């Protein structure tokens, strides 16, 4: 069947070679006579798959040796709870920066476990900007400073990790991990759900500096306990093996693309040309401060909102699908993760110009 | 490649037609132009897949209308925490029956959240029997009575749900759900990880009577909150969509097999002939009280333990794999879930007889 361009925010498009490999492996994995779906997580075949995925991820992100890498069931929402449960470490307060919908979710969940200081908020600008770092008020007694590296819905992205004033810096990188190089050593903890740049939903990757673990709050569910998961190779419970395998295919593909610098260059080209197309015509608009526009999620509006429905219908006809904005904000949105080919962005831009010509 | 017979305890063998359908769908799902792996959980295509899986499961298990069915990230180990977090409902005590390794795990986790009364334990018999129901001591003030319907490691299975003395009855059915009919109306809650009879790991199915939810303990992670998950169709967070889809293929396949009575008849035949083969030769032994032997997991020993290594090696040569016992107990084990064809059991029995003839 003809493949379309899938601009869904997650679960989202996967690279064609990854799908092809997964399909081929469903005939049976190597000479085992079974598929990866049927492998015991304790058997040497799966252990090999898991270790290679972990090693490739370490290599791509240049993760220092004093960081643990965990593959855990559930996505970022589960980590919204796991992070304070593990990282409060006897303190009572945590600091969060709010840059939109997902920051607010993380804050609400953290409030179940401790006092949350909101160090800065983009709310006044309706989350179209990020308050400059010098204006942040970070409590030195907080257990950590948390921010959302990319807001999938609002389309706001940090272009560099903020200064943490000596606190452990914690980042939700669900929607931009592996899209650019990151200096992991600046972080206490990085977490990301997998369904954008790492494959299938139901899996989160957690990268945590080892001195921060081991003091989980009483009442922390065992499967959420980073120390136990680190000690048992993410196998306190049966891990989501198939999603881990797909994560391995994703990082392998990324290495074949030339690694993070190469994928970043492509992501910059894709984003720049799409924003340029939006800015060039008053028919389209993106409200975000250009300095913090997301390379991954590009929300936009039509000057005449009544044209959104025909826009979506005609785009779908043209093989450009899932361009609806999030139900909380409306409008339109193009998610252009690593796996979205540059041709997909070019096709969207051509369609947008043509639609404006006919309807503008 | 030639498929082997995979006796792994979980993740475990899947039906060949399910694998074939999954493989075919990786070309693209129907006319969407994308695969199920790439579908937004909020889109109508995935919602259709999820609703059909849920409806098929309801039909197979004849789940009454006053029960919610949830598809949650994580497996049974996550539910070991979620069950007391949701079902304590202002009480302080819970009652658990211990029948082996997995009961003990569930008990240890429940102790993080409340006082656990062990109503009965098979420990004195080294977990080869289940204490008769009249000997159980069930506290009438307990929030619920929990038991493990099938012990995957010890090979002990309840042949009927126990009387609960008016308490909500809670069962971990991870390794025998969908292997036989169950009278759901007798239970307060049934949970099961998916990686035996429902497909891929990283997913748990929870079936809960609706009057029991809505009183989760303070500090319950949102993704563990049954009320919220029930209200939002298991989408408080992005669910493990691909595992949910495979669960749908599994229940569809089960319906094609004739439903639970038909699969039960096949499971009885498979188990009876395998136990008969073990009992017929002093060379093999199974320690479990015949009244509570598991139809799903058949542990066995060789009279001469030194022969286990050659047994495993020669079995593998003969296309019979993953027969190692659990690392906590050693010995051998054949897991014969729904997806293990009767021919696989026949092949194992032939091999066992032949091995005994040569080495006995």
UniProtKB/TrEMBL annotation, chains A, B:
<dbReference type="InterPro" id="IPR020578">
    <property type="entry name" value="Aminotrans_V_PyrdxlP_BS"/>
</dbReference>
<feature type="binding site">
    <location>
        <position position="102"/>
    </location>
    <ligand>
        <name>pyridoxal 5'-phosphate</name>
    </ligand>
</feature>
<dbReference type="InterPro" id="IPR015421">
    <property type="entry name" value="PyrdxlP-dep_Trfase_major"/>
</dbReference>
<feature type="modified residue" description="N6-(pyridoxal phosphate)lysine">
    <location>
        <position position="196"/>
    </location>
</feature>
<protein>
    <recommendedName>
        <fullName>Phosphoserine aminotransferase</fullName>
        <ecNumber>2.6.1.52</ecNumber>
    </recommendedName>
</protein>
<dbReference type="InterPro" id="IPR000192">
    <property type="entry name" value="Aminotrans_V_dom"/>
</dbReference>
<dbReference type="InterPro" id="IPR022278">
    <property type="entry name" value="Pser_aminoTfrase"/>
</dbReference>
<comment type="pathway">
    <text>Amino-acid biosynthesis; L-serine biosynthesis; L-serine from 3-phospho-D-glycerate: step 2/3.</text>
</comment>
<feature type="binding site">
    <location>
        <position position="152"/>
    </location>
    <ligand>
        <name>pyridoxal 5'-phosphate</name>
    </ligand>
</feature>
<keyword id="KW-0963">Cytoplasm</keyword>
<dbReference type="InterPro" id="IPR015422">
    <property type="entry name" value="PyrdxlP-dep_Trfase_small"/>
</dbReference>
<keyword id="KW-0808">Transferase</keyword>
<dbReference type="GO" id="GO:0004648">
    <property type="term" value="F:O-phospho-L-serine:2-oxoglutarate aminotransferase activity"/>
</dbReference>
<comment type="function">
    <text>Catalyzes the reversible conversion of 3-phosphohydroxypyruvate to phosphoserine and of 3-hydroxy-2-oxo-4-phosphonooxybutanoate to phosphohydroxythreonine.</text>
</comment>
<feature type="binding site">
    <location>
        <position position="172"/>
    </location>
    <ligand>
        <name>pyridoxal 5'-phosphate</name>
    </ligand>
</feature>
<feature type="binding site">
    <location>
        <position position="195"/>
    </location>
    <ligand>
        <name>pyridoxal 5'-phosphate</name>
    </ligand>
</feature>
<keyword id="KW-0032">Aminotransferase</keyword>
<feature type="binding site">
    <location>
        <begin position="237"/>
        <end position="238"/>
    </location>
    <ligand>
        <name>pyridoxal 5'-phosphate</name>
    </ligand>
</feature>
<dbReference type="InterPro" id="IPR015424">
    <property type="entry name" value="PyrdxlP-dep_Trfase"/>
</dbReference>
<feature type="binding site">
    <location>
        <begin position="76"/>
        <end position="77"/>
    </location>
    <ligand>
        <name>pyridoxal 5'-phosphate</name>
    </ligand>
</feature>
<comment type="similarity">
    <text>Belongs to the class-V pyridoxal-phosphate-dependent aminotransferase family. SerC subfamily.</text>
</comment>
<comment type="pathway">
    <text>Cofactor biosynthesis; pyridoxine 5'-phosphate biosynthesis; pyridoxine 5'-phosphate from D-erythrose 4-phosphate: step 3/5.</text>
</comment>
<feature type="domain" description="Aminotransferase class V">
    <location>
        <begin position="4"/>
        <end position="348"/>
    </location>
</feature>
<keyword id="KW-0718">Serine biosynthesis</keyword>
<feature type="binding site">
    <location>
        <position position="42"/>
    </location>
    <ligand>
        <name>L-glutamate</name>
    </ligand>
</feature>
<keyword id="KW-0028">Amino-acid biosynthesis</keyword>
<comment type="subunit">
    <text>Homodimer.</text>
</comment>
<dbReference type="Pfam" id="PF00266">
    <property type="entry name" value="Aminotran_5"/>
</dbReference>
<keyword id="KW-0664">Pyridoxine biosynthesis</keyword>
<keyword id="KW-0663">Pyridoxal phosphate</keyword>
């Amino acid at each position: 069947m003809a493949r379309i361009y899938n601009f869904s925010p997650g679960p989202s498009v996967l690279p064609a070679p990854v799908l092809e490999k997964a399909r081929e492996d469903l005939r049976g994995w190597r000479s085992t006579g079974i598929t990866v779906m049927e492998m015991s997580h304790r058997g040497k075949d799966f252990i090999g798959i898991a270790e290679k995925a972990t090693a490739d991820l370490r290599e791509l992100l240049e993760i220092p040796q004093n960081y643990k890498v965990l593959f855990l069931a559930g996505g970022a929402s589960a980590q919204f709870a796991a992070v304070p449960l593990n990282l409060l470490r006897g303190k009572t307060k945590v600091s969060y920066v709010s840059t939109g919908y997902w920051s607010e979710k993380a804050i609400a969940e953290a409030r179940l476990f401790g006092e949350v200081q909101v160090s800065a908020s983009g709310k006044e600008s309706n989350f179209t900007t990020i308050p400059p770092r010098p204006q942040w008020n970070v409590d030195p007694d907080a257990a950590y400073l948390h921010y959302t590296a990319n807001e999938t819905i609002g389309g706001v992205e940090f272009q560099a990790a903020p200064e943490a004033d000596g606190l452990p810096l914690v980042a939700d990188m669900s929607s931009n991990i592996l899209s650019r190089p990151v200096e992991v050593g600046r972080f206490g903890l990085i977490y990301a759900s997998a369904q954008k740049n790492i494959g299938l939903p139901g899996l989160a990757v957690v990268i945590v500096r080892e001195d921060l673990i081991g003091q989980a709050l009483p009442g922390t569910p065992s499967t959420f306990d980073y120390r136990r998961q680190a000690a048992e190779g993410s196998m306190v419970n049966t891990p989501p093996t198939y999603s881990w395998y797909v994560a391995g295919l994703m990082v392998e593909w990324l290495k074949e693309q030339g690694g993070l610098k190469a994928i970043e260059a492509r992501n910059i080209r894709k984003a720049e040309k799409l924003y340029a197309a939006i800015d060039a015509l008053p028919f389209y608009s993106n409200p975000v401060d250009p300095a913090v526009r997301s390379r991954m999620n590009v929300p936009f509006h039509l000057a005449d909102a009544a044209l959104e429905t025909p826009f979506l219908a005609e785009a779908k006809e043209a093989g450009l699908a899932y361009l609806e904005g999030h139900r909380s904000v409306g409008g339109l949105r193009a998610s252009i993760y690593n796996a979205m080919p540059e041709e997909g962005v070019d096709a969207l831009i051509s369609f947008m110009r043509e639609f404006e010509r006919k309807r503008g």
